[in-house]
Amino acid sequence: MFCVLPLKNILIVLLSGVSGDTHSLYTRVGDNVSLSCTNVVNQDCSSTTWNYHRTGLESVIEEVSLGKIKTKSKRADRLKVGSDCSLHVSDVRAEDAGIYTCQQYLTEGGPQHGSDAPVHLSVLTSEYYLTDIKPDRPVTLRCLLYTSEGPGKCPNVVTGPVSLLWVDEAGYKLKKDSRHQVTQTSDCDITLTVTLQKEDNNRKWSCQLNINEKKEISIDFNFMIPGNHCMICKDIVHVPSGYIPNT
Question: Residue 187 has what pLDDT?
C-alpha cells in the first residue's frame, strides 16, 4: 500500500500583479498572506476599512471597520490588521478567495475618503483520491484555483495569462502516456491520474501555477510506502476543497 503526502510548506511564493491600485495575490490552502493597503490616511489605521466580495455573494462583507476586526466575521479569528494597515489572513482556506477592498473613512458613517484599493486573492487547492492503493493501481490528483469568479475560473490579470500544469521531479511538464493521464477542465482546473509502480516510492509530482508561462507557486505530492514517516495512510482518502458560502 502507498500513501500520499501533500508537501504544503515547501514553496510559499506570492505574486503581486499591480495595475494602478489593483493587486493580485496567489497563495495555497494553509498558508498565511498579507494584503497591502495602498491608500492609508491615518497611520494608526483608524480610518481603514476592509471589505470582502466575490461572485455569488448578494452583498459586500465588512471584515474591518476603522481599524478594528469585525467580530461577527467568519474569518475574525484568522484576521489581523498590520501596523501598516495591511490585512493579514492566516491559515488560508478556499473560501477566502475573492476581492478584498481597502477603503478610508475619516469618521464613522461619513463619506469615503479617496479611492478604493482592491486586492484580488486567488487560492490554489488540491484534492487526492486513493482507493486500494498499491502497484498497478491508479491514484488521482486534482489541482484547482479558487478566484473571485469561482472555482476553476482563471482571473483576468495584466501580468499575463494564468494556467495550471503537472510537472515531474525534474520540472518537466507531464504529458499523457501509458502511466499518466492529464485532464484539464479549464486552465485553472487540472487532474492527474497516475498508475503507480514500485519505483514510485518517494517520487514527487507537482501541480504548478504559472503566470505568463512562468512558475509562481506550486503544490507538491510525494508518494511513500507506509512506514515511520507516513503521515496519511488509509485505504480510502478524499480531501475535498469546498467553496463554503459566506453569510
Answer: 92
